[in-house]
């Protein structure tokens, strides 16, 4: 049974379990629902001056957790409010598609994976990545400690993984995993624990902590380091929203990045805020996740270009990999899929 601490939700099954035709119909209808609300303030002449605050919603990819730390920091510390945004964070969960919700106009911003953005675009859903809160995606393959030194050694053994998951299709081809016994991933780790020869898909910020608590020694391969280089927890919106409301997009991105900068040195404070939203996730687990993700968020290109930065070569490489494994049918202009223009100046 999936709980708010189960991390299998991040491994979306291909291909993009949206009903594309219905999403496009909703998207065509649009939703310019930027409800501006006025807040009175006193001008020099004691006359109320109207300050417009725009109501917006962002949909995350699961219940509140460290991977959303910057977003909740921006909300709780008033960074969104200071930017003129009346922000609602709508948590994801089983059966919640941020892509579909944003495409239909029911939310302005969403959070997902880079490969989701590319597949959505090929299916006519014009999503655009506007920041990458993770330079390296936390997806990986976990195994019992000291069992494997190379992922090719998984041949002949059971691997619990979602059917058709893009990163797994890449790994199978790149490392010739022809004789792996693919087992259905359900979110439970019981079968993995019972079989020391097996491996399972994970989020490196979560399941290793669960195993630590159960006294099971594990290690993992990070998919990014194995060559499947994609950004994680992409913030995205639609082409139309960027065109119609570039000022709001810029305000959202800048406030979000300010939140991530704050979270780096104040994670304990913000984790307590998130636990109020997701009490099933204990503070000890949050502390583990915060430490595990630090290099993934603030390392790499983020060291010199700031949190959220995206490299064109990474996007092009990912697109090529998805074409090579048949997830995408063809390449498309990659500059249309992402932009750094709304990131704070460095």
Automatic annotation (TrEMBL):
Pfam families (alphabetical): NMT1
Domain SsuA/THI5-like: 66-269
Source domain of life: Bacteria
The keyword Ribonucleoprotein is annotated on this UniProt entry: no
GO MF term (any one): transferase activity
Position of the signal peptide: 1-27
Record InterPro entries: NMT1/THI5, SsuA/THI5
PROSITE patterns attached to this UniProt entry: PROKAR_LIPOPROTEIN
A GO BP annotation: thiamine biosynthetic process
Keywords, ordered alphabetically: Signal, Transferase
PANTHER family documented for this protein: 4-AMINO-5-HYDROXYMETHYL-2-METHYLPYRIMIDINE PHOSPHATE SYNTHASE THI11-RELATED (PTHR31528), THIAMINE BIOSYNTHESIS PROTEIN HI_0357-RELATED (PTHR31528:SF3)
Protein name: Myristoyl transferase
Organism for this UniProt entry: Paenibacillus monticola
